[in-house]
Predict the 3D structure of the following.
Amino acid sequence: MASGAHDLDAHLQLRTDDRSLTGTLRVGPKVPAEHIDSEVFCVFLESRGVNRRKIDEEAMRAFVEEVRAGPGAEHAAIVVRGTEPRDGAKRNLDWSPQIARDIERINARKEALAEENEKGKKRPASDDEEPTNFYEQSAFIIVDAGQVLATVSPPDPGEDGEDIFGNTVPAKKSPAPAEIDPETIELTNDNKLIALARGRLVYSGVDRRIERTLRIAGDVGFETGNIDFPGPVEIEGGVRDRFVVRARGMITVRKLVEASTIESRRDIVLERGAACREAGRLIAGHTLRAGYLESADAECGQDCIVRHEITNCRVNARGMVKIPTGAIRGGTVVASRGIEASVLGSVQEPRTELLVGALGELEELIRQARTHIVETRSIIDPLVTRQKMLNSAKPGKLTAEQIESQMALDFEISEGHRRITALEEAIARLENNLRESISPVLKAGQCIHVGVVLWLPGCKATFRNELKGESTIKLDRRNKPVVDHRGETHPLSKFASVESDPRILSLPPLPGSQEADAADGQGMAA
């Protein structure tokens, strides 16, 4: 081989694959016959760095016979084989018992719904099976931060291979069981999947993540069931009759809300509006915004802002009710910080009730405290009378029993006065809070129709005639209702029947004001 080595190099060639796991020996058509030998070929391969252990001797013998049988032609065959690495096995994911039950329930719900849709009627239940409640059973899995979602089989390191040159070919580690979003799900060192956020678990296909915002592509209906979500909810469709959507975050509905319940601890945004047919409720912890409201029961922790119309609704807002270019027609609207609308009532004269400057919770506390003061005084007044009688007795005339009774009276009267003082201080604080929390002002841009009844603190106004033009109704410094109309201020009684009414609590004037001076003067006259 040494004497003809250079000649042999011209006739033999080694080719490898990308990872050098196989070696192909190519023999040219003009290789000398005396060089067609297994040992000669093996020596050539070793000269190219091939590890002798990796030469497939059986394949080599067969290749030599092939070359000898076909002289004058080019031949090639794989005669060297490395050891393939064994990559780590895929890690298996096993859902927690609770998640597994939820997945099973949702799959059963889908099958039942598909069956119902196909039949067009409710599926009859078997003796041991209750019919599926498509309202109460949600189509989503909601998880909490820190919740264990699943366990994953330990990683398999695999086994390294070896190429034809004797070099190590590293094995690939076990891949994750699926695509896991590291921002919302953690794979811990003890092979558990832990939720990093509260929200909806997405588990279909290879996708594993938690949605902090629940997005509904269509309507909330039988496909989704009722929704109770710990974050924001965005609904591209509407909300069908009798369904419930609750969320701790903002709720946005692009299309119509029917006779359903929408409840958020923050804002509710109804881009189209709500037609609730006197069977739907809207409860916003902060602000409610809508295109229109019809026959709805709405409560707002802050403002209620509507673009077009509020019709036959019961609205209670602790902020303002604002519909600057629209109308309020029929129903009852309560607003702590005022009402602003273009039109109030309508020519059909539906009874439209407006309560401006009302804050029922604080008012009720003040009323209860005032009642407790009256009750306490009714108890201690007879005791004071009795005390005076005992005090009028001549010194030394009182018996030991009378002296003991007098001391008990003194204590009870003192305790009663202390209780009254505490209640009066509490009332003063509550009244101050109420003053800061209300603004009894009604603004109308175009018209107040006949049939509108307006309550302000301490009074009620019924409109018997139409009031056209821009107007602002409020209380003056004497707590009397007045209206700024066409640049002039008039008593509201000029345009409506006004009477005293306790429905909204009237606050006494602040000490030191002209109203207080007037009240003191009236008290002195009485």
Observations:
- Confidence is low (pLDDT under 50) at residues 1-6, 122-130, 515-526.
- The chain is about 25% helix and 35% strand.
- The two ends are 138 Å apart (CA to CA).
- The first helix runs from residue 5 to 9.
